[in-house]
Amino acid sequence: MKISRQPTPVTIKIDQKQLENVKCFKYLGSLLTDDGRCTCEIKSRIAMAKAAFSKKKNLFTSKLDLNLRKKLVKCYIWSIALYGAETWTLRTVDQKHLESFEMWCWRRMEKISWTDYVRNEEVLIRVSEQRNILHEIRKRKANWIGHVLRRNCLLKEAIEGKIDGRIEVTRRRGRRRKKMLDDLGDRRGYCHLKEKALDRIKWRNCFERDCGPVILTDY
Questions:
Q1: Rounded to whole angstroms, how far apart are CA atoms 39 and 23?
Q2: 150: nearest Cα among 204, 187, 102, 101
Q3: Structural domains of the chain, count
Q4: Are the beta carbons of 159 and 152 closer than 8 angstroms?
Q5: Following CA atoms 143, 148, 150, 156 in sequence, which dihedral angle do they give, to the nearest 10 degrees?
Q6: Among 83, 157, 176, 213, fewest CB within 10 Å belongs to which?
Q7: Which residues pair with 13 in a beta bridge?
């Protein structure tokens, strides 16, 4: 699989047999695509999480205590949906998919149908929650990135762009692609972000404080 904006195939032969060019494949449970985006992986994860919710629907919609049911949803359902979320680069459309999934969970848990015309704000009040899934992803990403930046490893060199090689750079119209570290962006630059990561306690406290719940919006 060639991850590039150029659709030209790559020719690789092993024992005179040419390897097949594919547009996507699963590796260690994550769906990789040739466009380098995470949208397909996020949709796949959401679909698996919804299927898991449906299998245990009687448990999540039972008369158990509300706080207990919320903990069960976050433990068993969100863990499926957010597998590998530390490495996701979230675009606006991806964030909307995730927020919609979050509201889907609370609506199904409270047996609220879309035909009831209940606003998202009202649903969140009923379950005593705020939009929190994007906050959870950013917190996980901060913990993982901080761990990587404190080590000397190949992954750190890849993030910093220190891998030897040549790349053809051509100017394109529009904004540049969003990068993984942009979610943790620091206006003072990557060096300051890296310096801040050296102190684990301050790093975690910083993102615990800054990663507040997302503002409520209706879609």
A1: 14
A2: 204
A3: 1
A4: no
A5: -150
A6: 176
A7: 18
**CA of residue 26 relative to chain centroid, distance:** 16
208 found inside a domain: no
Q: Which two tokens stand for residue 70?
A: 């919320």
pLDDT of residue 189: 57
- The span from the CA of 42 to the CA of 30, in Å, is 9
pLDDT in tens, 71-106: 999 999 999 999 988 888 888 899 999 999 999 999
Closest CA to 219 of 101, 81, 125, 58: 101
Integer Cα distance of 142 and 211 in angstroms = 10
What is d(CA 146, CA 140) in angstroms, rounded to the nearest whole number?
Answer: 10
- Domain range for 80 is 38-131
- Radius of gyration of the CA atoms of the chain, in A: 21
pLDDT in tens, 170-184: 556 656 666 666 666
